[in-house]
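Today's session is about reading a structure prediction critically. Students often jump straight to the picture, but the first step is always the sequence itself: look for stretches that repeat, for charged clusters, for runs of hydrophobic residues. Only then move on to the predicted structure, which in these notes is written as discrete structure tokens rather than atom positions. Here is the chain we will use throughout the hour.
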Amino acid sequence: MVRLLPREEVFFTLFNESAQNILEAARKLQVFLDDFRDVAKRAEEIKALEDKGDDLTHGIIDRLNRTFVAPLDREDIFDLAKQLDDVIDWIEASSSRIAVYHVAEITPEARELAHIIVHACEAIVEAMANLKRLDRVTGHLHEINRLENLADHVQRDAIAKLFAMDGNPIEVIKWKEIYETLEEATDQCEHVAHVLESIHAKNM
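Below is the predicted structure for this chain, in token form.
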């Protein structure tokens, strides 16, 4: 009987909306760091997208609770929604820390990390667009993993540079946390890739 019932395809649309919202936040973060001005306003714009992301996540979970036949395993839908939400949470945390810490200027390493985040989010969008055709997601998942490794190297080099300089200890602490927060956003992108890898393995 279950097999005869139509699957609820709206989840694919909801995941695409969530991924596009994440990418918009990532691009705003990149612009924020590349053209560093109007700090409070730009941080608030990213916060508004994070709030929208929360609404999208709640919408997915609410729909899941009301759906009899889902297009993917229910656990996978829940995990994917949660991991997508975590990506935008860390993007927002990055902009928030920069605003709260009253950073005077942005370092090249922070800008590079922001650009990597955008590329990772673009790969997430492409993967979500192919969620119905799982044979097409593998390349995007490899790209997310590659970008996370790149961000890890940039972050480590940036922190090493911080401690090699004889700078203000408070500034060192601030920037160490900012770098770690930016890099964590790429970690969360990789967690999305891990969920998609699991979905791929179950359904191919």
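Discussion point for the tutorial: The helical segments are 10-34, 39-65, 74-100, 108-129, 138-164, 169-203.
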